[in-house]
């Protein structure tokens, strides 16, 4: 065997492993397959990439803001839509990571790209906390609506507690938690660059970073959901007892899915704090906690693409309504929710995708 | 330039705080109409860009960006709760905008991009608490909303009580949204309090008054927020708010010609307005002060406007009398009225304090004519010594 | 037994969503008759039953019951007119007690004689012994007995019996067969029976229809239906 | 011959109902055994105890020499048990193919997974329905799918709770042949059944359960002739 | 005497917390427990009941009659909503969350637009009673009595009447219930109406003690939800003990450590109770029953 051949042989399993993962971009758990779908997808990404050239800084920054929330939505999509556990408290992980980003960056500063370290640590903290809650719930045989109430309670406890941390005694290092008024003054994400750091204030640069992250997370989730892991999650959603009787440790799977959801909510939280240099306890309150559920349900929770597109649609739509709807905004919002739920039980985007027919159909049924 | 002058307005016209803030938007509309009818600011009409922030801090962030970046307004009038102010303040700083916060609050914001027309503790508590102690006795029970506003206000009350030789009979903090007060009522009854300072925020907490009355607590009450903002005396059945004393820089019952004229003009434009509260007056005053500063500066440029402010004579004769902006803190002086709620919920004014300066920040070391820390200070965390 | 027609379907079609399962079913059942419908898995026997009770809308054809056209009536109206339905898989109310399950059965008996619990308990003693147990924790066979008892309470004129033998111990299958015949003799209730169990078909039915792919493809007279071999032949086509 | 399963002194009560009373039971490796008994005798409950869905009040369960009583359900399954429930426990919203994939992917991957799924589809006559959501199958088809999910992975012990319920005599016979086939490949089979013809077809030996306790044990002929069994279970010989 | 007043005070606080939990959760318990619908507009039915009560009371009706009007108005609106919206969402509990959230937005903002940001309330009747150095609102004792009466009434209705059995059957297996002659639409309508009416009753009972604003329902919502869920699937065996446990925890924490701990303690207790009893309290109660 020549050297090259030997190397080839070594590389082969890796390559086939890679090919296997790539093949999982399509599968029974996700809508959309075939060249037509991917061309459409690429077109959407391309459009998203070039549109800042034709727009102003505010609009792009605002679009970046929409993207910030999509991670939490996709995370909830996994936990609720795929794994069947309705979490009413993704905002707990969102808020925790948001505060963590603030506390860490205020303490260690933003030089040398340390903000990215802070981002990673915050997301890790969100994930760890979610795993802990997940362990507590799933290994404690908590299920169904009880999961919603436990998670809601967790997020409300955090909110109520953080709201009263106004005094100077509530500080971590040099970072004052600052109670209900919220914490501010943390640096945005910065990229170390020759001749001075690039500061990612809300704007075009941040937008591109977020867009790239959304694409990566979306594709990653597609692969994960079509992998055996995703199959088991769906099986648990459909019939947990039977799934266990097929030899799966469903508690472990549920906990891992929950941890993933927590990590993604944490990513949103840290990015939100970095975007606006501000985080507040009300981001863990009842209204905030209900919003992700609305986004995901309206878009379509059983499909990650629908969740992603749907949440952007709803967030942008609600904001537009608030801008143009004056005092009727909330009424119209409410009416739209009732209407969409009645007309499209599977979610607006999911229903649209089904209508659009074959290219969006699920692969490999 | 001579296009219109654009004023962004971000106020909670729906949600939790709507009861107290919807009227602020109307006050701004009234001032705008009057100014425009009289030829505008320096000949330029005012154009309002109004967004409903829905009592949601997130909306403040979204819309503050929008008015500054997209609508490119010259100035923003924004915010009811201190939390909302803190949500938008980093953004105002980031884009170097100018914002008016027309709301009474816990004080301490030292930020060159902010102008505050609302009353602050040295105006509301330094008057109210000594008067109450003298009238009813030295033992004070504070009941405050459990967040920055309530905690910092309570800190002020405590300090003033101690300075005046009184004692705190009790201090209790209530999480926002709590509406049941049976235990609190018993705590108060069990204490030796001579009067109760109520710093309750939001509609839910206001339920305290009805419940305390039903349990026959019977103690006089003092407040810096209630009545003057949320007109609880109009909403509750007499005599639940009887013996409530409030220091406010304006409410519609004030009987001066300027006040009555203001009320008349207001009701002519908004006949159904439930109540004209102090923040409505502050918002109205704010626009007029801004008009004056722009006219004197000859532009809407912030540096030019702050140069005018630094002269120290930016004053206005408004519904509550003459008020002036303090260059060091960019807060406003006020005539403070002590409003007493009678058994039938009518209002009397046992006392008035003319022209109280917002002196605390300046004394503590905030001087925006010299530097801009963009921070908020409290008695227990004052500005760093220079 | 008389020859008055109790139930008659003509060209009955129905299905799920776009998929049509019943492709025009014609069958007749006289007052007091016990008639079996047999056929392989998935040919549409249960679909027929659901359409007859009204849980599935007919997409074509008509159903006449007791001389009236009931095609457009809701299931609850048909139940009130005297059709009792014992579904495949039993569908007892799992969180209600046995007693409460029977109480729900009384609804359809409005306007008919009071429930004869003695008779029901004589046929199915377990329903008396376990009156307070949650129905969801009954064994499969016990649930089947409850499902039959629940319909008996309302004195129906016709019972739709979908695979009652499924999961039932041999002696109770015999009991069911005997009880149903006795009930039929006593009260004149007619029975439309879907079955695959040879013993039950042979011992109970007086006549039969063979179903295939949503259609009736053959009828079995009294002689054929009581011959195991003839029935078996039809079940294995 | 070694014993694959040993149950000793197994007890379980639900309130006033005893579902297992001092059950001592053993199964030889490679056996094909039937469990019969009146409705409510505790047959399904016995399965649930074996599978760890219910915890016994007392007693032990040994599988292939290992005490599995403290193990959780999924761990017992991984020891090589596989089950078909009385009430089909399929994933109704998922396609037939996905149901099978989920059942097998634990043991099989890639091409062998695909091949096994194809084989089982064919075997259960569900090839045409592969892409159909399992919930819309007819009752009997659901039973087949459930059987397919249980047998596809070639377990060491196969538990079948009323595999032929709702099947026509023809299909019942086919199922019996399939079980013989599996058994010939070394799989031990324990089946609960009410269809005596089927029991006759497959069982080497039979255990009768009554009121949670073992009532009789023996060959099929011994059992059918047993007057007690006739009395509680089979009914009078003929009418 | 000192001892007696202290005991009375503790009992009063517990009763007060208990009454609040029970009264505010009853309507939710019916709608969630019976129909599986998670009704996020529960608070707005409460608001509706309170508004109608206040309006009719100020128009001159005696308070008890005004409260009844409030309950009936909420029930009527509930039945209309059931006809138009909820009917399409049974057995889609997740969608019912979204729809009822939408309804709640419409109701809150609609009332704000139509009736303004606040409304004048009615005073608390019955006055107070003094005991030792403390005095107590008598109306709060009425609330406690109402809570106990409500629980008893609901228990009888659902467990000892045919309507209850039929309603529970309908919720569990609607198609089967229909096949047994039950007019399931009517059952759904009545059950939802009953739940909405109970929420309205809660609003009416608490109207004299609270601020009247369109968002007032929000103060009830968290506590009523946790009570219902801790109670577990069987609401009537669950809600009463759940309310009692949560009330003890809340009242004692509030008394010893203040409102913040009362608030947080309640939520933490919820988490702990659910962890100890994953099926909710009613599962445990049921096990005892056997
Ligand atoms: N809910 C449903 N939705 C869609 N299709 C269904 C549904 N129920 C049954 N079908 C389909 O209709 C056909 C007939 O089913 P049906 O249940 O009537 O069969 P059956 O003759 O009763 O069979 P079995 O003997 O197995 O019970 C089957 O092909 C099945 O896949
Ligand atoms: N969770 C439970 N709570 C109370 N009783 C139960 C429970 N589960 C089962 N039982 C009772 O235990 C007995 C045995 O039930 P099981 O389902 O094991 O019977 P089976 O032998 O499988 O009967 P079948 O042949 O009818 O399926 C029955 O009387 C049943 O009512
Ligand atoms: N400024 C206030 N009341 O928060
Ligand atoms: Mg069938
Ligand atoms: Mg069984």
TrEMBL record, chain A:
Q: How does it sit in the membrane?
A: Multi-pass membrane protein
Q: TM segments?
A: 36-54, 66-85, 92-110, 116-138, 145-163, 198-221, 252-272, 278-298, 305-324, 330-352
Please give the Gene Ontology molecular function terms for this protein. Answer: branched-chain amino acid transmembrane transporter activity
Where does this polypeptide localize?
Answer: Cell membrane
Q: Which CDD domains match?
A: TM_PBP1_LivM_like
- Record keywords, A-Z: Cell membrane, Membrane, Transmembrane, Transmembrane helix
Mind telling me which GO cellular component terms the entry cites? plasma membrane
Q: Which InterPro entries match?
A: ABC_transp_permease, LivM-like
Q: PANTHER family given for it?
A: HIGH-AFFINITY BRANCHED-CHAIN AMINO ACID TRANSPORT SYSTEM PERMEASE (PTHR30482), SLR1201 PROTEIN (PTHR30482:SF4)
What is the designated name of this protein?
ABC transporter permease
The opening ranks of the lineage are:
Bacteria, Pseudomonadati, Pseudomonadota, Alphaproteobacteria, Rhodobacterales
TrEMBL record, chain C:
Q: What domain of life does the UniProt record list for this protein's source?
A: Bacteria
Which PROSITE patterns does the UniProt record give? ABC_TRANSPORTER_2
Molecular function in Gene Ontology: ATP binding; ATP hydrolysis activity; branched-chain amino acid transmembrane transporter activity
> Does this entry carry the keyword Transcription?
no
Q: Which UniProt keywords apply?
A: Amino-acid transport, ATP-binding, Nucleotide-binding, Transport
Which residue range or ranges hold the ABC transporter domain? 7-237
Keyword Transport belongs to the record:
yes
Q: Which GO terms describe its biological process?
A: L-amino acid transport
Q: Spell out the family assignment given in the record's similarity comment.
A: Belongs to the ABC transporter superfamily.
Q: Which PANTHER family match?
A: HIGH-AFFINITY BRANCHED-CHAIN AMINO ACID TRANSPORT ATP-BINDING PROTEIN, HIGH-AFFINITY BRANCHED-CHAIN AMINO ACID TRANSPORT ATP-BINDING PROTEIN LIVF
Q: What is this protein called?
A: ABC transporter ATP-binding protein
Q: Which organism is it from?
A: Paracoccus gahaiensis
Query: What is the phylogenetic placement of the source species in the record?
Result: Bacteria, Pseudomonadati, Pseudomonadota, Alphaproteobacteria, Rhodobacterales
TrEMBL record, chain D:
Note whether Transmembrane occurs among the keywords.
Answer: no
Ranges for the ABC transporter domain?
Answer: 5-236
Q: What is this protein called?
A: ABC transporter ATP-binding protein
**Gene Ontology cellular component list:** plasma membrane
Instruction: Name the PROSITE patterns for this protein.
Output: ABC_TRANSPORTER_2
The GO terms this record gives for MF are:
ATP binding; ATP hydrolysis activity
Any matching Pfam family: ABC_tran
- The organism of origin for this protein: Paracoccus gahaiensis
Keywords, alphabetical: ATP-binding, Nucleotide-binding, Transport
Question: In the UniProt record, does the keyword Phosphoprotein occur?
Answer: no
Q: Check the UniProt entry and state the signal peptide residues, or none.
A: none
Stretches that traverse the bilayer: none
| Highest taxon of source | Bacteria
UniProtKB/TrEMBL annotation, chain E:
Q: Which GO terms describe its cellular component?
A: plasma membrane
Residue ranges crossing the lipid bilayer per the database entry = 18-41, 61-81, 93-116, 136-158, 187-206, 264-285
Instruction: Tell me the compartments it is located in.
Output: Cell membrane
Q: GO terms for molecular function, please?
A: transmembrane transporter activity
Which example biological process does GO assign this protein?
amino acid transport
Q: Which UniProt keywords apply?
A: Amino-acid transport, Cell membrane, Membrane, Transmembrane, Transmembrane helix, Transport
How does this protein sit in the membrane?
Multi-pass membrane protein
Alphabetized InterPro entries for the sequence: ABC_transp_permease, BCAA_transport_permease
PANTHER family given for it?
ABC TRANSPORTER PERMEASE PROTEIN (PTHR11795:SF447), BRANCHED-CHAIN AMINO ACID TRANSPORT SYSTEM PERMEASE PROTEIN LIVH (PTHR11795)
Q: What does the similarity note say?
A: Belongs to the binding-protein-dependent transport system permease family. LivHM subfamily.
What is the protein named? Answer: Branched-chain amino acid ABC transporter permease
Q: Which organism is it from?
A: Paracoccus gahaiensis
